[in-house]
Design goal:
Elements: E1 12-15, H1 25-38, H2 47-51, H3 56-67, H4 73-91, H5 98-107, E2 111-116, H6 120-129, E3 138-141, H7 153-162, E4 169-173, H8 176-184, E5 188-192, H9 201-207, E6 210-212
Parallel strand pairs: 1-2, 1-4, 2-3, 4-5, 5-6
Length: about 220
Amino acid sequence: MMKKWPDNDPEAVIFDLDGTLVDSMWMWTDIDKEYLARFGYPFDKQIQREIEGMSIGETAVWFKERYHIPDSLEKIQSDWIRMSIDKYRNEVPLKPFAGEFLTFLKSRGIKTGIASSNAIYMVEACLDSLSVRDKFDIIATASEVERGKPFPDVYLHVARLLDADPAKCMVFEDIPAGIQAGKAAGMYVFAIHDAFSEELEEEKRKLADAYIRDYSELMP
């Protein structure tokens, strides 16, 4: 029926958000450039690789320590939330065939969840703007657990909330840290193509159980 689908349907499918369900990774470069410019710092393209997988709280600590930002951690996070929500609501589309794939999963009675490193306000704003929030049984973020990706905490957390066996869960991710988190949770991990991480394709293929260009590859 499907090129890369396991023989048996999973109990649950858990998605990362940025770069996996929505085409949004580009916006974080824009936000980082704009935010650092406020304090007179140039943008370093290595930033995204260094912070990939971190929760928003962990990222705020990283920025504050690296750039000696005078604002409180709460102020740093609230500034990012305001900047990102505007872009999520107005500039971020679903990845190709993501909506159809979510409908397909629901038609088969498969539970679905979100495991994002973003703040919940950002995730909800994004899903609401795209009218897909009702496609998910659980929406959770790395802020709810002790450690962000590449640790498995957020994926295990979502599996518990879904009452699903981690060994029977499937994960969709776009970056190496996220793939490592899904694998560390004992889940079957699909890596998905994203232009932002194109130079990491070989690494993603090695880490994941399977690799897809878009969700049409998984639908009959």
